[in-house]
Design a protein that fits this description.
- This protein has 13 helices and 9 strands.
- By secondary structure, the chain is of the alpha/beta class.
- The strands form 2 sheets. It has a 7-stranded parallel β-sheet with strand order 1-2-3-4-7-8-9. A two-stranded antiparallel ribbon has the order 5-6.
Length: 312
Amino acid sequence: MAGVTDLPFRCLCRELGAGLVVSEMVAADPTTWQTRKSRLRTQFGAEPAPRSVQIAGYNPHMMADAAQYNVEQGAEIIDINMGCPAKKVCRRAAGSALLQDPALVRDILQTVTGAVSVPITLKIRTGWDYANRNALVIAKIAEDAGVAALAIHGRTRACRFVGAVEYDTIAEVVAAVGIPVIANGDICSPQKAREILKITGAAAVMIGRAAQGNPWIFRQINHYLAHNSLLPPPSIGEIANVMLRHLNAVHQFYGESSGVRIARKHIGWYLNRSINGKSFTREFNQLQTADTQSSAVQRYFDSDLQYPERAA
């Protein structure tokens, strides 16, 4: 979710029911900490607690230093990424590439948990590939190292985001360790969230891509789990209000030049199922100022176009 879970999006997700949000992945390499990209990724503003920062790297002491640095900047949870399948991350022996080296995983986790007093959480996959699935081994290492909670995307690194999710593997980990396990992977509806909680016995579910353009999913899942009934989809008025507030927050956070560019993908996600949404997005992507973007979105919702109901 790098490039997605920035401060404006995290605040919106919390407002709409997410129990915990995590920053975009930031590198443990100290030479990157003062770049504009890294500084934006670790800004909290008025974000409610607990504030979680995700770090990625391969050197145990560098990871510990990164954890200490981010705690000093206000992080209240440090999340370690050992699940990212991106080639540029794995080429540096970080992200899910670490799953190939359990001894190094142990060294990183022990060093980081010993360096800071805040909770350490860990995100992994089920393994490197089908022939090398070791989520259970990594989970036990994490528990022994003092990791507070473990999130598992139920695919291997080789699978990336394609193919069936190994919910049975997540269930095996839940049964084997005493720390909370969070299930992740293709959870895109309230019904699916409840199903996966039942199948895996996980303490919670993690929503990623399903929240892109649909931050209401958190509210919908919470309601369904609590009341066994589906909320109606957000009204046209609420969709317009959320989109415009999100758009303005992006412009304010990044400044006009970067904000206009970054806003394009979010508007595309919001409108990918709406009537004429794709054609509007093509036109929207040509706009060059914050004012013209905001005005275009307002005109879209002031027109006679109707937004179809999202699948509950």
